[in-house]
User: What shape does this take?
Amino acid sequence: MSFSVATEKSQALSESQRTALIKLLADEDPAVYHLVRKKIRSYSQTAIFWMQPYVLSSDTVLRPHAQ
Assistant: This one.
């Protein structure tokens, strides 16, 4: 996937949509986690930038999922 395609995809998500995905990433249900993880990973390199703050989260479920 080229960077331009990944950038276009990330711009398609609003801030509230990204926030919702991140909240769902902390869901303890493995099915929800895997579905959300797949969705976030579909945004490739750009997802790395908006996930970085959550890698250091104090949330003990979200932090490892963000990593």
Remarks:
- The chain has five helices and no strands.
- The mean pLDDT is 80.
- The CA atoms of residues 22 and 56 lie 13 Å apart.
- The two ends are 21 Å apart (CA to CA).
